[in-house]
Write a structure and sequence with these properties.
CATH topology of one domain: Umud Fragment, subunit A
Number of helices: 2
GO molecular function, one term: hydrolase activity
Helix content: under 10%
Protein name: SOS response UmuD protein. Serine peptidase. MEROPS family S24
CATH architecture of one domain: Ribbon
Strand order of the largest sheet: 1-4-5-10-6-7-8-9
Structural class: mainly beta
Strand content: 25-35%
Distance between the termini: 79 Å
InterPro entries: LexA-like, LexA/Signal_pep-like_sf, LexA_repressor, Peptidase_S24_LexA, Peptidase_S24_S26A/B/C
Radius of gyration: 24 Å
Largest sheet: 8 strands, antiparallel
Keywords: Autocatalytic cleavage, DNA damage, DNA repair, Hydrolase, SOS response
Family: Belongs to the peptidase S24 family.
Shape: globular
Length: 194
């Protein structure tokens, strides 16, 4: 009969492996199943998240908390003052007002100044809907050559242009060698004053 001894190699060892949060994303990762047809798109999205002018991406919560707030029917004049009416419309819930397709809506924080002419400033929060089909004139989140950017989509015949809304920035006219993926359509911008 043979003596069997327990192998002392392999398995978890104290202090072994990479420290938590030391990877590319600065946080723990998880394994997930992705349809094969979407692997490259997910890979490009993850690579683009660390470049470009999108500082942060967040998904809309699956179960948003309704927070109805009073909505006054009077419009606020931006010119000469007008006496305000005291009439209130039904309450407004920002979740239902800003989000059309909950499962396909994300929030992205802007980094940069190329879209100031469209009212999108550095640090603003964009509401991005991935369920909408992009069309000419839409402001979109695009993945171009592996980097995320926010620009106005212009389609003229066979020419695709990503238009900046600031004269200090050049428009990007796509060449046949460039690969463009429209990641989502910007539906709203949230701009804080304080």
């Amino acid at each position: 009969m043979k003596n069997v001894t327990k192998n002392k190699k392999g398995g978890a060892r104290p202090g072994a492996g990479r420290p938590r949060g030391s990877g590319r994303y600065g946080e723990p990762t998880t394994v997930m199943r992705v349809p094969q047809s979407q692997v490259e798109a997910v890979r490009r999205f993850l690579q683009a998240g660390t470049h470009g002018n999108i500082a942060e991406i967040q998904a809309a919560t699956a179960t948003p908390t309704a927070l109805p707030r009073p909505l006054f029917s009077s419009r606020v004049p931006a010119g000469f003052p007008s006496p305000a009416e005291d009439y209130q419309e039904p309450a407004l819930d920002l979740n239902s007002h800003l989000i059309q397709h909950r499962e396909a809506t994300f929030f992205m924080r802007v980094q940069g100044h190329s879209m100031t002419g469209a009212g999108i400033h550095d640090g603003d929060l964009l509401v991005v809907d991935r369920a909408l089909a992009p069309k000419d004139g839409d402001i979109v989140i695009a993945v171009l050559d592996g980097e995320l950017t926010v620009k106005r989509l212009r389609l003229h015949g066979d020419t695709v242009t990503l238009q900046a809304e600031n004269p200090d920035y050049d428009n990007i006219v796509l060449s046949d060698l460039q690969e463009l993926q429209v990641w989502g359509v910007v539906t709203s911008v949230i701009h804080s004053f304080r």
